[in-house]
């Protein structure tokens, strides 16, 4: 069971492992905090940043950015895993973590830390929180980036948590931008088709397990609340909404309750997005009219910077978590011989490229993996490049993957294209932007040719005998570094 019970508990653990920087110098919500975050994000494993002196805001109103960043340790801490795992080991362990499901537990409004302050309708002012303007051409200040938006399916009563961006449009209103096909959009449409407004809760200042699960796609009959409980090893404590029929996390930092109406659209965006571009141009977008705000004393607003690699908040955690989900999808579909799956973090938010390594078991195996990895539910959105490699290639090592593509793939025979696949308005590659929800995918077979597997050129490898000889004499060669480890040897013909 995870010991920390909220964002503050997790931050304390992060500080213990030396990965928190407290910024006491005055900083500006207007591009300065995001600028610092962008630059710190360039450093592998750079610290989480807690800003506690924000221009125009009283002390205690804090912002946490570079939350998980490029630190496998912070991601492991968030998911209750050992801290020193490789990415592939984390992916394997996460598959089991995601299988655990524990339903939430309702607690009283009075007992919930997030209810230390409750502000109702007329007094609502969302600008009391130091929301960031992140990029120069952003359309406004974004309060919702590392958030969880909670909606309910009017037909099944199923609660969904999703991370969707939210721009402040006025003191009592935030944007509600959701990409086509995402759960909150499907819920919203269903309410409106029934002639009813859509109730929404938004959580800002989520604990990292809630953030990770909200950013993941779970099947529509699985509530993210159950998945978060599964990670924590105990039920998520939730309260019944004050003005909505929705459940919100009792330990969150800030929660808003509100209503989205079909005829209420406001200008939203542009916003510097996960690809490192201002995705779609600004446009009219549904909004949430805020009816109630709950928040803790000295609230911490979490902020996820969207940027080019490596400074994009979601790249590493999302790439790792998505890899585990894709592997699971392939397993559920009965695909044999999977040795590793990697949703490459640098490929635009961990969305753009998926590598799968397999032990080829039969004719057509690689083609099956490519087709199913391209369209399984965890990978169907956005992914542009799907690459299958043999089991001797570590899919988390992109240089090994490139080597396999350059030595085992014959482009004229081994590349297929899928057209009109699921994409997003944010993809800058299609114009005019109205066409962007339709994407395309490249399927690359970088495995040794199955038909000629036995005759395929042998890989050059050191024998174990040679390796050990060199290892023994290493110091005598006068080299100043350790002898590198290697993962496989050529069978020694003399042994
Ligand atoms: C930091 C961050 C911001 C995101 N912003 C958006 C967004 O504005 N709109 C959107 O549709 N998806 C956004 N996503 C992706 C969704 O959170 C993700 O696709 C998730 O699966 C959505 O939940 P759902 O599957 O329940 O719809 C974002 C993800 C992250 C990590």
Quick overview of this protein structure:
It contains twelve helices and 22 strands. The protein has about 500 residues and is an alpha+beta fold. The protein has two domains: about 5-300, Roll (Pnp Oxidase, Chain A); about 315-450, UbiD C-terminal domain-like (3-Layer(aba) Sandwich), CATH 3.40.1670.
Topology:
Blueprint (H helix, E strand, L loop, with lengths): L6 H10 L3 E4 L8 H10 L6 E4 L10 E4 L6 H8 L7 H13 L5 E2 L10 E4 L21 E3 L2 E6 L6 E4 L3 E5 L2 E3 L7 H11 L4 E7 L3 H8 L8 H9 L4 E4 L6 E3 L4 E7 L4 E4 L14 E13 L4 E3 L11 H19 L5 E6 L9 E6 L6 H11 L9 E6 L7 H11 L2 H4 E8 L15 E8 L18 H10 L22
Parallel strand pairs: 1-2, 3-17, 4-12, 19-20, 20-22
Antiparallel strand pairs: 2-3, 5-16, 6-9, 7-8, 7-11, 9-10, 10-16, 11-14, 12-13, 14-16, 15-16, 18-19, 21-22
This protein binds flavin mononucleotide (FMN).
What does this entry look like structurally?
The chain is an alpha+beta fold. It folds into two domains: 7-302, Electron Transport, Fmn-binding Protein, Chain A (Pnp Oxidase, Chain A, Roll), CATH 2.30.110.10; 314-449, 3-Layer(aba) Sandwich (UbiD C-terminal domain-like). The chain has twelve helices and 22 strands. Strands 5, 6, 7, 8, 9, 10, 11, 14, 15 and 16 form a ten-stranded antiparallel β-sheet that branches. β19 (353-358), α9 and β20 (385-390) form a beta-alpha-beta unit. α4 (87-99) crosses α8 and α6 crosses α7 (224-232). The longest helix is centred in the middle third of the chain and has 19 residues, at 314-332. The protein is globular, with a radius of gyration of 24 Å. The model has no long low-confidence stretch (mean pLDDT 96).
